[in-house]
Predict the structure.
Amino acid sequence: MAEKLSDYSYKTPIAIRFSDIDAVGHVNNAIYLTYFEEGRLKYWNEAIHWDWSQNGVIVGRSEVNYLKPIMLRDEIICYVRTTRIGNSSFDIMHILVRVTEHGEEICTTGKTVCISYDYKQNKSVPIPQRERQTMIEFDKPGLILNTN
């Protein structure tokens, strides 16, 4: 299914560093996961207000769909939203867009399976209720699956 930018309530600019560029002149494929990570962290801090003193988040799996290359001088934005919430895991979708004179052009999409994690116990734990509810309310309940 194609992602629609109108389904996203959160977006943040991403800076492209010279070191992100490969020998061919575009952003190296491995760097896209770093861009997703930057977008997710800002989303959790600014929109969800995740309480890191209680629980952390670890990555269980990441998927990247490379649609168009991103170049050094491109201005890019990362859109982020929660798409599924289980007991201890949840899915985050990302879209990287290039800003052009004609609007935003989707370059990359991706999904990350995230797991609520207690570092003291060294195990996954249920998603904290406040963070769960904030994700549901912020990211439009009708667009989130399995909200328990």
Helices lie at 31-48, 129-138. The two ends are 24 Å apart (CA to CA).
